[in-house]
Amino acid sequence: MSQGGGRVDGVTDQLVRLVPWSDDDLDLLRRVNTPEMKKHLGGPETEEKVLARHQRYLALPNGRMFRVALAGTGEPVGTIGHWDREWQGEQVYETGWSVLPEFQGRGIAVAAARALIEAARADGRHRWLHAYPGVDNVPSNAICRKAGFELVGPYDFEYPPGSLMRSNDWRYDLRKQ
Fold first, then answer.
1. How many Å apart are CA 103 and CA 92, to the nearest integer?
2. d(CA 60, CA 41)
3. Is the Cα torsion angle 114, 116, 120, 121 positive or negative in sign?
4. pLDDT at residue 6, as a whole number
5. Of 110, 88, 114, which is closest to residue 99 (Cα–Cα)?
6. Looking at the predicted structure, is the pLDDT value of residue 38 above 80?
7. Is the separation of the CB atoms in 144 and 131 below 8 Å?
8. Which residue numbers delimit the N-acetyltransferase domain (predicted)?
9. Side-chain half-sphere of 157: how many Cα atoms within 13 Å?
10. 53, pLDDT greater than 70
11. Is the bond preceding 160 in cis, omega lying within 30 degrees of 0?
12. Does residue 116 surpass a pLDDT of 90?
């Protein structure tokens, strides 16, 4: 793992490697933009919104997006990242992820979440990393639990804009070892 200016250039877990988001990852973003993959997030986005999201991922000013790749082969299997958000009066990191359906159920998302914890810890600007899966998103809530996040409680969020979503607030203390 190499670092420069507080940014992590790649984090490897035994199962996955987090590779910084690049122009080459647009196709992966399209692959995770399906009704199945977006059922807990308001449905698939238009091509225009996917292109805009890709540009945001490339230029995140206070965070980092990654391609999740299998450690052994480098095959792209999903996305994960962290970015700044204000939460209950303080600055925290938020995280979110997607793992392609054919790779789900293998521990990949948990490994990616654990590697992302290390990337956020290395970035070092905030104490807390939060994830906000919908209360009905059983797999993502299980990923949070298995990756070591603490359940704080349910909250209502407007996501996507114009829709109310009931989510669990999971947090990870980046100061603990």
1. 29
2. 20
3. positive
4. 35
5. 110
6. no
7. yes
8. 16-175
9. 20
10. yes
11. yes
12. yes
Residue given tokens 């958000």 in the structure block: 85
Dihedral sign (CA 94, 100, 104, 108): negative
Q: Is the dihedral of CA 52, 58, 64, 69 positive or negative?
A: positive
CA distance readout (Å), 87 to 106, 130, 146: 32, 9, 23
Query: Residue for token digits 């990337």?
Result: 119
Burial tier of 30 (Cβ tally within 10 Å: 0-12, 13-18, 19+):
middle
Q: What average pLDDT does the segment 95-116 reach?
A: 94
Residue environment code for 112-150, b if the CB has 16+ CB neighbours within 10 A, otherwise e? bbbbbbbbbbebeebbbbbbbbbeebeebbebbeebebe
How far apart (Å, rounded) are the C-alpha atoms in residues 46 and 52? 10
Domains in the chain: ranges and CATH: 3-173 (3.40.630.30)
What distance in Å separates the CA atoms of residue 45 and residue 61, rounded to the nearest whole number? 23
Confidence of residue 71 (pLDDT cuts 50, 70, 90): very high
Task: Give kind and range of the element (H or E) at residue 97.
Answer: strand 90-99
